[in-house]
Amino acid sequence: MLDPYRVRRDFPILSKKVHGKQLVYFDNAATSQRPLQVVEAVESFYKSLNANIGRSVHELGLRATEAYEDSRKIVAAFIGAKPEELVFTKNTTESINLAAYSLLVSGLISRGDAIVVTRMEHHSNLLPWVRVAKLAGAELRVVDVDDEGRLRLDEYEKALSRGAKIVAVTHVSNVTGVVNPVKELCRLAHDAGAFCLVDGAQSTPHMRVDVKDIGADFFAFSGHKMLGPMGTGGLYIRGDLAERLEPPFPGGGAISLVSCAEDSCSAEWLHPPHKFEAGTPNVAGAVGLAKAVEYLRSVGMEDVEEHEKRLTAKLLEVLEGVGARIYGPRDMKDRLGVVSFNLDGLTPHEVASMLDLEGIAVRSGHHCALPLVKRLGSPMGTVRASLYLYNTPEEVEYFGAVLEKIKKLATG
Q: Which GO terms of the molecular function aspect are on file (predicted)?
């Protein structure tokens, strides 16, 4: 069983006081905190290994390249992928754009095709497909959700029935915590002849992920939400598909040969994943992300998920106790530890600001998922509390006590 009190010793920021109150960090869906082990790994790289990779035969260059590729092996194994199937990116947003534009420039999305998304998507898994659909002359289809934010599978199957080429769906909603049945969604997409991209930004930090078992063609995630450095992330591309794709961002480090005639130039790409990583990458970030993965593996992802589910069940009870309007399902088998709510008589930003004065960090607003928040009936947004492995039952109890105080202030 995970011991959050032991885990917290590795996170010095959690001992910080905000407005004179002990910090309670409930904004993990936006970004997680970093353990000392990650901070020290990044620092050590810059102190002892800093050099550009894949370009030099001197000692530092070779060792930096080795550290980068070793990090790729560690992170790829964490999601059940081969190293050559993992492209390092700076975040989930870049990963999804990379997938979308690779399909476009490779001619795998064209006029008359359909792109299927859902109403629960983060803007980062919606807007790239809006743009690519426009550029390709393709049709965009949006699958609706029910009143608790669950995907409507009947509408999903209907959307696949007429010429779908790519499905883009989140694994876990960043608003409601809903866990989508992505293995089934990918299977149905493949049966319809479509590729399937899974946005794993909110799942990879909190549950065991196996991209092969899911059956995804693409799987995107961010490092900064899973204890890693900001500016790190990854895109899994299924091996045979990666070989077929043209990289949308050409440049140095991605090619094996460039030749120019009098009036034209051409290039031959390196094999994946390197053809998708033009330019100098965030090598120190990759090293830090690998260390974050090692940290999570040492704790155990099954234990991380179990701990968060216990806390989330307690959090839902606390919110119900103060009369909050909760968005998303109550059944813990359908969700993870992202909980959106509102208090009557107060705007989301007012609640978040009052919580901040008591040392509690949450997010308020539309959470970059405006179509979903509107569908759930809260056009002004919601307050979002999101949990992680270092949060404790006492923090949830304190959160409830502060909400009770805020409610009394609001009602006079």
A: cysteine desulfurase activity; pyridoxal phosphate binding
Question: Are residue 289 and residue 321 in the same domain, yes or no?
Answer: no
Same-domain status, 122 and 211: yes
Nearest to 185 by CA among 247, 117, 106: 117
260 and 364 fall within a common domain: no
Q: Are residues 267 and 370 in the same domain?
A: no
Q: Which of 186, 196, 265, 368 is catalytic?
A: 368
User: Domain boundary residue among 238, 262, 297?
Assistant: 297
Q: Is 186 an annotated catalytic residue?
A: no
pLDDT in tens, 152-181: 999 999 999 888 999 999 999 999 999 999
At 263-277, the pLDDT tens digits run 888 888 999 999 999
199 neighbors 94 (Cβ within 8 angstroms): no
Q: How far apart are CA 404 and CA 2, in angstroms?
A: 29
Residues 180 and 308 in one domain: no
Name the 3-class secondary structure at 376: coil
